[in-house]
Design a protein that fits this description.
The chain is α+β, with helices and mostly antiparallel strands. Helices cover 31% and strands 46% of the residues. The relative contact order is 0.12. Residues 188-234 are annotated as: Disordered.
């Protein structure tokens, strides 16, 4: 028993010295984490943000006091993210009521934050029957968008000729056909990628010049054979 205790007491200083040496070497190699015997948390590098811009066509049907068909165009600005994506849309479309021959012009914007959240927006509208009667106004809207389909419930606050039949409360179902998609990074990431691209081009150019220089200093057998013929041609 005494022999075992003496053996343990002999080993303990060695373990403590090894632990102190390991900790010191870690702090020397990682000055970001330890400074003046205080633990520092390094700053997290900024996340790269990917944005999507696209535009396309929309078709839909609107139901209220009157039934109208919609067609027009829409543009989207989207921030792609796993946790907090958001999208903003701008719409310009035409509504036409075939029964009462009333046409409406509508322009609006909407936005959505998150994946399964609602869309919130507003519109400016103008209706006419081509016989001198017209109504105009604005109104808010709320909707739900999924897989290209957009269900919108909105209200129009209108002024003008009340005899003109136009929807003040309506529900619309639209479908969006994308025509062109474009992906861009945020400005910091975009500049970083451009710098890296320029550095790669410079590195390739430098390697090419080095190869040409080595070839001039140490020409191959084929280059030696070609050289007299090139001089004779010149």
């Amino acid at each position: 028993m005494k022999i075992n205790l003496c053996f343990l007491l002999f080993l303990l200083p060695g373990f403590s010295l090894h632990a102190q040496y390991s900790f010191a070497s870690f702090t020397d190699n990682n000055p970001t984490y330890f400074q003046n015997d205080q633990v520092l948390i390094p700053e997290r590098p900024p996340y790269a943000k990917l944005y999507q811009r696209n535009y396309g066509a929309i078709i839909g049907i609107q139901k209220g006091k009157a039934t109208s068909f919609e067609f027009g165009g829409e543009a989207h600005w989207r921030k792609l993210s796993l946790l907090k994506p958001h999208i903003t849309g701008a719409t310009a479309n035409i509504e036409y009521d075939f029964r009462d021959h009333v046409i409406g012009y509508k322009a609006g914007m909407w936005m959505k934050r998150g994946r399964v959240n609602l869309t919130y927006g507003g519109n400016l509208v103008y209706f006419t029957d081509f016989n001198g009667k017209s109504r105009y106004g604005a109104g808010p809207s709320v909707g739900f968008r999924l897989l290209g389909f957009h269900l919108v419930n909105g209200v129009n606050f209108l002024a003008g000729d009340k005899d003109l039949k136009a929807n003040t409360l309506y529900v619309t179902l639209r479908y969006y056909f994308p025509i062109e998609n474009k992906f861009t990074w945020d400005k910091k990431t975009q500049k970083k990628k451009e710098r890296e691209k320029k550095q790669r081009i410079k590195a390739r150019e430098k390697k090419r010049k080095e190869r040409e220089k080595r070839r001039e200093e140490n020409p191959s057998l084929l280059d030696r054979i070609k050289k007299p013929f090139q001089k004779s041609e010149s």
